[in-house]
Design goal:
The chain is α/β, with parallel strands linked by helices and 304 residues long. The protein folds into two domains: 235 residues, P-loop containing nucleotide triphosphate hydrolases (Rossmann fold, 3-Layer(aba) Sandwich), CATH 3.40.50; 53 residues, Histone, subunit A (Orthogonal Bundle), CATH 1.10.20.140. A six-stranded parallel sheet has the order 3-2-4-1-5-6, with helices on both faces. Helix 1 packs across helix 12, helix 2 crosses helix 3 and helix 9 packs across helix 10.
Length: 304
């Protein structure tokens, strides 16, 4: 069985710093598990590690997609499993790093073999939501109450997919079988659990920094390349608000405040998601703290 390390936790908790330290110590390679860092050109707002800051450590599944291309958790799982197999075959240690819990679950445990996208149905659902805002969440709450509690009423893309799946699977016969979990690896899951107040401070500071370091210029450049602003990556925290600034729908300060609030809420949802997984070994603190890094290295050394 090949060893596999997973580093997860809320946004801003220092996952990247910890991964770089562990990879350096144990001949590791980093595999992205952040749904937005998959996309090329979306760097500042996603806090993507610059190539020159990667310390020569191989990074996988970064900048893998054009902004126009959609990507599902199942597609991510298939691509990531191929990467893990390649890394392990070279007797290197793969480290899956990121905060997209649904992608991580798909990678480790598999997903039901659900139907693919029905573009015609998706267009009809999007039009319905545009004409009657909130209607998709109300529909989902009737047909799948559990999913409606997990998906925010303003997360239109997830709502469309959830309603689409309900429509397609109810029409499908037989009901799809479950996909197989990841095989050939034994996995150590490390979760970062920083102090909530300190994390909130960091998130506000990071939001101000990404705007100061050129988020608006990055978005302006992406639009100049021919993107419309309707592509999936523009739904990400910070990018949506940057678009609003460029369209004169709000001020920079209003965009910073909105992004900060939304990022804190997102971090809370990430904590809730990962806390449900009893296999995680939780470490109190941030991943860039020397004490946390040393504890992680000792834990991994014993586990290996």
């Amino acid at each position: 069985m090949h060893p596999l390390i997973v580093i997860a936790g809320p946004t801003g908790s220092g996952k990247t710093a910890l991964a770089l330290r562990i990879a350096s110590r144990f001949d590791g390679e980093i595999v992205n598990c952040d749904s937005l860092q998959l996309y090329r050109g979306f760097d500042i707002g996603t806090a993507k590690t610059a190539v020159e800051d990667r310390q020569g450590i191989p990074h996988h599944l970064f900048d893998a997609l054009p902004p126009e291309e959609g990507y599902s958790a199942g597609e991510y799982a298939r691509a990531a499993r191929e990467v893990l197999g390649d890394i392990s075959s070279r007797e290197r240690l793969p480290l899956v790093v990121g905060g997209t819990g649904f992608y991580l679950n798909a990678l480790l445990r598999g997903l039901p073999a659900l139907p693919g996208r029905d573009n015609s149905l998706r267009e009809r659902l999007a039009l319905r939501e545009e004409r009657r805002p909130g209607s998709l969440h109300r529909i989902l709450s009737r047909v799948d109450p559990e999913s409606s509690r997990r998906i925010h009423a303003r997360d239109i893309q997830k709502l469309i997919r959830a309603v689409e799946l309900r429509v397609l699977t109810l029409a499908a016969r037989p009901v799809p079988e479950s996909a197989a979990p990841l095989e050939g690896h034994r996995t150590l899951l490390i979760g970062l659990n920083p102090d909530r107040a300190k994390l909130a401070e960091r998130l506000e500071s990071r939001t101000r920094r990404i705007f100061a370091e050129g988020l608006l210029e990055e978005v302006r450049g992406l639009l100049a390349q021919g993107l419309s602003g309707d592509e999936k990556p523009f739904e990400a925290l910070g990018y949506k608000q940057a678009l609003q600034v460029l369209r004169a729908e709000c001020s920079v300060e209003e965009a910073i405040e909105s992004t900060t609030i939304a990022t804190r809420q997102y971090a809370k949802r990430q904590r809730t998601w990962f806390r449900r997984d009893r296999e995680f070994r939780w470490m109190d603190g941030f991943g860039d703290e020397s004490g946390v890094q040393q504890m992680a290295i000792e834990m991994i050394g014993e586990w290996l």
